[in-house]
């Protein structure tokens, strides 16, 4: 495992990103409407002014030409300007990245902290009442729609009980740790639900697989207790297949963030995506989606690194 | 004095059962077996005859959720010279016995080691668990053990992972792990079955040497009578969950007194050079029929459906163990007629 390997992996992602960008660009322009729709019915904006704006953003060009223009500037590090706000795309994204990383990071920690013990207990007591209840609960967790759960929680904890703020990043004038914590718990819980459910299933099946291996019997024959066997011998081996799933689920977390951030008015890139979608803000959407694709590719590289760290039989040259 | 000491291990009328969806499966049906300190007892029989279940019962390694000892005693004389019935010991007490006073090695060296831990770590673990050593001392012990099992460059080998070793090397690691706490009893469940013939002989040679040096008793499980001749003092032939014949090695090869044992001997590859040269080695007479299905055992003698000597009386009752002389026992009502 070397830095060279990581660089090579990143480099090999370039053609992938190019392909993705072509597809994304086409899909965005296939969607009906355009960024200037909000002005077309406005009597204060003349036809000439509209044409001028369109020309300024290159929107009067055919789509392939627009793509080439976008790609050319992208290659020199220019992500373009948001049509909605007029500010540089990269600046907007960076501004909104912080809250999303906070939310996603917390959701990830919650997911691991709950899914790993649940998966282990389910596997160690497979077939028990506890195991079947957890199985049922995780199916429920996977099937509950994110927005529905979000609304339900808001109704309970904000409207009925009044314990937590229903939305937002922090209170106006507030912003100390407790204030921010009270704002983040609900969206983080909602965002982690689906991953807790699916990861605990994966850790359970990985664990059951490992617990049937010969080396587990060897560990018992050494005089280890069940707890010692599970934690010292089974867990690491069971996490190896789970790592891949966790990385693949990164895409699920990203799409979950779009809904969660919108429902909870969380000022992150998920909500920025929804806003840009509404305004058909092409440069912004392209920037966000390229960022998302890069994130998923990075998650896969990190998964490979984690894989090699967990399994000494794997060596990447 | 020595003659008065109780045996190291004395299994009495052991019955082990599994709970399965199709009902209770009795895999071991009343086994008696004695291992004296420093002695090697081989248990031999076709696969499915209950050898592994017997050894796992002694170690109490069958998960309670699927089965366990139903009756009988497993009397073990510990380091404190006290005899305890392991069948009745609580789990926490068994944890102090396993890997410490009784150690076990398994058939599959390729899968019996944890693939994500260094071999030195896996050996040191036993010493850490039972001997209260520090990590550094336990690692040192692991390297010593690797040297003891004749692994070259033990300090370097301790620091690698199982997948970087051959099968024979891994079985040496298993032996090192098993002997790290100087157990009084070593249970070896087909330790050479998965290995090449030359490696098999090396491992057997190693076990013989270690037994001379350390003096542990060995319960050696195998389906190969050739291996029995190499290593054992006494033999118990197992079939359908019962011991059907027991004798010293010489006596068993000299006058096999159960048709099953005779069948096993006939299916043994001849080591005779003349036979090998004549090309007759390959033609082995496998015993016709298949082993007992414990869910559906025959009435009477377990072997009667496959036995050329079987008569009606064989189907009527399970034969007792007959003394055929010299402490040699056979569970066959026609033992005296077999040569006739
Ligand atoms: N986990 C289990 N569940 C049910 N039956 C089992 C189980 N393990 C072993 N048995 C039964 O015990 C019999 C003896 O198995 P075993 O001791 O492994 O034979 P071997 O002599 O080859 O070591 C098998 O034929 C099988 O029917
Ligand atoms: Mg076996």
TrEMBL record, chain A:
Keywords linked to the UniProt accession: Cell membrane, Membrane, Transmembrane, Transmembrane helix, Transport
Organism: Devosia psychrophila
InterPro entries named among the record's database cross-references: BPD_transp_1_N, MetI-like, MetI-like_sf
Record's subcellular location: Cell membrane
Annotated GO CC locations: plasma membrane
Domain ABC transmembrane type-1: 97-307
Pfam family name, one: BPD_transp_1
GO molecular function terms listed in the Swiss-Prot or TrEMBL record: dipeptide transmembrane transporter activity
Protein name, UniProt field: Diguanylate cyclase
Transmembrane regions listed in the UniProt entry: 12-31, 103-124, 136-161, 181-199, 242-266, 286-310
Entry keyword annotation includes Nucleotide-binding: no
Keyword Transmembrane helix annotated: yes
Protein family membership: Belongs to the binding-protein-dependent transport system permease family.
Lineage top rank: taxon: Bacteria
Topological type in the membrane: Multi-pass membrane protein
UniProtKB/TrEMBL annotation, chain B:
Keyword set, alphabetical order: ATP-binding, Cell membrane, Membrane, Nucleotide-binding, Transport
CDD domains: ABC_NikE_OppD_transporters (cd03257)
Gene Ontology CC, one term: plasma membrane
Residues that span the membrane, as ranges: none
UniProt keyword Manganese present: no
ABC transporter domain segment(s): 9-265
Family to which the UniProt record says this protein belongs: Belongs to the ABC transporter superfamily.
UniProt-recorded name of the protein: Peptide ABC transporter ATP-binding protein
Organism taxonomic ancestry: Bacteria, Pseudomonadati, Pseudomonadota, Alphaproteobacteria, Hyphomicrobiales
């Amino acid at each position: 495992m070397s830095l060279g390997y990581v660089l090579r992996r990143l480099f090999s992602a370039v053609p992938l990103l190019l392909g993705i960008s072509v597809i994304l660009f086409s899909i965005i322009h296939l969607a009906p409407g355009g960024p200037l729709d909000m002005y077309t019915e406005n009597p204060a904006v003349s036809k000439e002014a509209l044409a001028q704006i369109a020309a300024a953003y290159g929107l009067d060009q055919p789509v392939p030409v627009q793509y080439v223009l976008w790609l050319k500037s992208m290659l020199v590090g220019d992500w373009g300007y948001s049509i909605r706000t007029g500010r540089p795309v990269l600046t907007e994204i960076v501004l909104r990245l912080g809250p999303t990383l906070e939310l996603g990071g917390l959701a990830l920690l919650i997911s691991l902290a709950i899914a790993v013990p649940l998966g282990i207990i389910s596997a160690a007591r497979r077939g028990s009442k506890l195991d079947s209840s957890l199985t049922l609960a995780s199916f429920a967790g996977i099937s509950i729609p994110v927005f529905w759960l979000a609304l339900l929680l808001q109704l309970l904890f904000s409207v009925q009980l009044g314990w937590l703020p229903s939305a937002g990043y922090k209170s106006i004038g507030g912003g100390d740790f407790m204030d921010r914590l009270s704002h983040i718990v609900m969206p983080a819980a909602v965002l982690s639900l689906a991953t807790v459910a699916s990861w605990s299933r994966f850790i359970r099946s990985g664990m059951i697989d490992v617990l049937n291996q010969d080396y587990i019997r060897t560990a018992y024959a050494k005089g280890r207790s069940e707890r010692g066997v599970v934690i010292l011998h089974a867990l690491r081996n069971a996490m190896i297949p789970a790592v891949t799933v966790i990385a693949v689920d990164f895409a699920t977390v990203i799409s979950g963030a779009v809904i969660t951030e919108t429902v909870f008015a969380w000022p992150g890139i998920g909500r920025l995506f929804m806003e840009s979608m509404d305004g058909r803000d092409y440069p912004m959407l392209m920037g966000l989606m390229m960022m998302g694709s890069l994130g998923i590719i990075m998650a896969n590289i990190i998964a490979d690194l984690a894989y090699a760290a967990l399994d000494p039989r794997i060596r990447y040259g | 004095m020595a003659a008065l000491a109780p045996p190291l291990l004395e299994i009495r009328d052991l019955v082990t059962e599994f709970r399965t969806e199709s009902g209770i499966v009795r895999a071991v049906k009343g086994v008696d077996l004695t291992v004296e300190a420093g002695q090697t007892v081989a248990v031999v029989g076709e696969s499915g005859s209950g050898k592994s279940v017997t050894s796992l019962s002694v170690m109490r390694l069958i998960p309670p959720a699927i089965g366990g000892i139903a009756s009988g005693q497993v009397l073990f004389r510990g380091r404190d010279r006290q005899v305890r019935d392991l069948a009745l010991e609580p789990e926490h007490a068994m944890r102090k016995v396993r890997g410490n006073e009784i150690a076990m090695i398994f058939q599959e060296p390729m899968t019996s080691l944890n693939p994500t831990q260094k071999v030195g770590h896996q050996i040191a673990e036993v010493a850490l668990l039972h001997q209260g050593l520090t990590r550094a001392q336990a690692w040192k012990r692991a390297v010593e053990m690797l040297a003891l099992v004749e692994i070259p460059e033990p300090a370097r080998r301790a620091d690698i992972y199982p997948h970087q070793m051959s099968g024979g090397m891994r079985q040496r690691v298993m032996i090192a792990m098993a002997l790290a706490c100087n157990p009084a009893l070593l249970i070896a469940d087909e330790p050479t079955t998965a290995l090449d013939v030359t490696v098999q002989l090396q491992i057997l040679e190693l076990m013989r040497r270690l037994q001379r040096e350390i003096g542990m008793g060995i319960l050696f499980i195998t389906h190969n009578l050739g291996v029995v001749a190499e290593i054992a003092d006494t033999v118990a032939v197992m079939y359908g969950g019962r011991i059907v014949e027991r004798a010293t090695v010489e006596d068993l090869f000299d006058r096999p007194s159960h048709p099953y044992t005779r069948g096993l001997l006939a299916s043994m590859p001849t080591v005779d050079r003349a036979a090998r040269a004549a090309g007759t080695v390959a033609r082995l007479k496998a015993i016709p029929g298949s082993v007992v299905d414990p869910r559906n055992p025959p009435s009477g003698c377990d072997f009667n459906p496959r036995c050329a000597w079987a008569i009606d009386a064989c189907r009527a009752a399970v034969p007792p163990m007959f003394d055929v002389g010299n402490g040699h026992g056979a569970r066959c009502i026609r033992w005296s007629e077999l040569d006739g």
